[in-house]
Amino acid sequence: MTVPPRVPGRIIHCDYQIGFAVITVDAPGFFDDLQPVQLAESAMGENYYSASWKSGQLILSSVRWSQAKVYSSSVPYVRFAGISVITDLSGGGWGEPVFCGDKLIGIAYSQTKNRAVLQPVELIRAYLHALEMPEYPGFAALGFSYQYNKGPAMSAYLGQKGNPTGVRICTCFPGGSVDGIFQSGDILLELDGHKIDALGDYVHPQYGPLDLKLIGSDGHYAGDIISARILRDKREMTVDIPLKHMPSSMALIPQVRPEEPPEYLVAGGFIFREFDEPYLQAWGSNWEKNIPFYLRCIYKLRKESPTLEQRRLIVLADVFPDEYNLGYHNMAQNIVRSVNGYPIASIQEMEEAFQHPQNGFHIIEFLPSLSISKVILDAENFESATAEIMKKYEIPERIRCSQP
């Protein structure tokens, strides 16, 4: 069997948030005998199959529709209407194309056992269309959290008459599309012409009830303006929302770091770094179940929820044992609350806080956990101990920080 020659690919454009890229090759004539795949009008259909290449063979596997659901992209904050399917392909989820007849209806985004999630053809079309614009706009995100509005008491308290409908706005992310437009306590009744029910769903024209956060990216790009109808202070009003792109760097707990490595600080043998998903992945392929319960709660509840006061979380990643930090050698994986009384939301703030000891001591406080909640260090020997520990453990740099 003749092995086809391998040709290096070159990325022309990549959108990390939706996981799509355009790739070309510089080899002359590479595309001459190839025909582009046809895109289906929608992902709706029947008799699906996926195509994959394994061990030098083309493998076609049966795929069966399960449900349409709103998924968060691997790099926040974009939502997409993913198609959950049951597949006969084992070990998939690596970008296998899925067809209905001879037309592409989606690309495999992930797979667990025999269940896979497809990024639908509608998202593929939207990406290709965006590439044709004079400037790539990126996909928009609404940037807020909400609470169900099922209870008649809360609904009445907020001034709503009749059966509860819409959802209560909880928080708006700084720099997001609704920042400065929605307020905590607003009831969102309608968005972009879609009525919102008490569970936060709207009726998608193809897939039925789906989460309202899809509206910001489904058929829209950053720069578009949509309207919303809200109930505020017992009065209904309509507001316009200029949709914004929210880069992954805005997340409280970044899921991937394509732009830059994490910031860190070595202080008295304590290794502090930004809390992100790559840090959690050190617990292995099943990290979401293996990480400490305390960190799992923070990750699940707050990963996309920065505030003006808290743009990042700082975690004590490790303690390099030394006589200077005796008694604290087993307290890694705690989240920093403050240093010397200063709230901490960045490595730069931590570096500055260590310039202000309290009565000859450095006091590090952590968020409540099952471990030690406070560390007291001798400020007089702090710098010399840090230097000695770095030399002993061959640490080349004390701090990595992008801020001045």
Describe this structure in words.
This protein has 404 residues and is mostly beta strands. It has three domains: 10-131, Beta Barrel (Thrombin, subunit H); 144-242, Roll (Pdz3 Domain); 251-400, N-terminal domain of MutM-like DNA repair proteins. It is built from seven helices and 25 strands. It has helices at 121-131, 152-157, 277-280, 287-290, 293-302, 347-353, 382-392, and strands at 10-15, 20-24, 38-39, 48-54, 57-72, 79-87, 97-100, 103-112, 115-120, 144-147, 167-172, 187-191, 194-195, 201-204, 208-211, 225-232, 235-242, 264-267, 270-274, 314-319, 334-339, 342-343, 361-366, 374-378, 399-400. Strands 18, 19, 20, 21, 22, 23, 24 and 25 form an eight-stranded antiparallel sheet that branches. A six-stranded antiparallel β-barrel has the order 4-5-6-9-8-7. A hairpin with a 3-residue loop joins strand 14 and strand 15. The radius of gyration is 25 Å and the shape is globular. 34% of the residues are buried.
Quickly give the CATH architecture of the largest domain: Alpha-Beta Barrel
CATH topology tier name of the largest domain: N-terminal domain of MutM-like DNA repair proteins
Tell me what portion of residues adopts beta-strand conformation. Answer: 35-45%
Give me the number of helical elements: 7
What are the low-pLDDT stretches, counting only 5+ consecutive residues below 50? none
Quaternary state of this entry equals single chain
The N- to C-terminal Cα distance equals: 59 Å
Molecular shape: globular
Class from helix and strand fractions: mainly beta
* The CATH C-level class name of the largest domain: Alpha Beta
Helix fraction? 10-25%
Number of DSSP-assigned strands: 25
* Computed CA radius of gyration, to the nearest angstrom: 25 Å
- The overall number of domains is 3
| Biggest pleated sheet | 8 strands, antiparallel
Mean pLDDT: 91
